[in-house]
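Entry 14. Ran structure prediction on the chain below.
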Amino acid sequence: MSGLDQALRDQAAGIASGELDPGELLDECLARIEERNPELNAVVATFPEESRRMLEEAPAGPLRGVPVMIKDEWPLPWRAETVGAASVPGVQLKPGESGPYRALRDAGAVLAGVANMHELGSSSTGNTSVYGAAHNPWDLARCPGGSSSGPGAAVAGGLVAGAVGADGLGSVRYPAAYCGLTGLKPTFGRSAMEGHHIANTETIVSGPLCRDAADCRLLASVLFGEELPAAVPRALRIGVIRDPFWEDSAPGVLEACEAALESLRGEVDGEVVEVELPDQDLILPAALLVAQSEEVAHLTPANVNALSPELGLINRSVLKLRAIVPATLTARAFLVRAQVRRNLAELFERVDLLAWPTVPAVAPPLTEPVVELPSGPASADAANARHGVLANLTGVPGVSIPVGLDDGMPVALQLLGAWGSDALLLDAAEALERATDREFVELRPAALA
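Output, structure tokens:
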């Protein structure tokens, strides 16, 4: 097996023991990007000289010499982020030492490139970018998920073993689900975020996309600046909200997630409890309003009137709509958030985890991102957001875990935990991996098998 095809932690251990040469590993990574990226379009920039300089100066950290990717959402000392767009209204982007960059650098990691993303981070599909869409390695004609489309496609496509994405309304978990990876949305405020162009965000977090939970634990620990301890969970109470998360998921997704839930319950000697969350119909609109409020200060009449024609039509329309949303409506959304946080805190007194499909249907075509659900056809964005935004609205952590295939495409189960329970979520993910003999985290796209 090529060193590049080993797990993130195994690459780090091999370099530390002298079994892997980090210079050769970086060269292999850059060569593979050159070979595979024309089809995947997962990587929008490489910088071999800077990568080799990082390797030469790498400290003896937990990722010393290991090549990784970072989403095009943070500045690097030698490159400004572009956020997948021709421009960001009202924001001057420039190079700099962002928090995720420093965390990776101080851990000894080597940035092999910058990964693509959905334009302005505004969709769960990844089908729009100033660089062109990234492609799902499982089927190049399908969506890789967004907005961390490039990180997902890069890891699933074997370019690197780990990548840093960002999750504002599900944007780490959606590509993890579509691409058959494990993706962690950390507790708000816990992972490195300095230098993000939305300085006042209350929804966005940086997070890892990796092949399995142990690699996610390693990369998350680097982003957190603290080790996330591993434990063997027992007697977990797993809450299930049937309507709409389970009942309105595609049959193949439902079947795989039900089997995974039962496997997890058995592995941890746990209990599945059917629960309800009050005010459910308010969660999605409140999350969208809270998220849009974080950028509204930049949407002055002058900036809105000067929107670049190179921005996608949908984003130009959405930005204009954001500029005229009444402040009173946004204020009500913050009141809803406070109530939902209370409701969720009360729910987590009765259960340890919540579980439902990460997305209700597998990756749709890039050209027409529509999914078929029991309730009828729906845009992938609307369907996915229903499953993903609760964690961002309330700040709690969530993890997406691959649990099977439907129509040859990955299916994923999402687990949510109480504030600060990131380690428990990864413990539960590893328990599920054990229960299924790691069958699904070891699956690879046919082109890479």
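The radius of gyration is 20 Å. Will compare against last week's run tomorrow.
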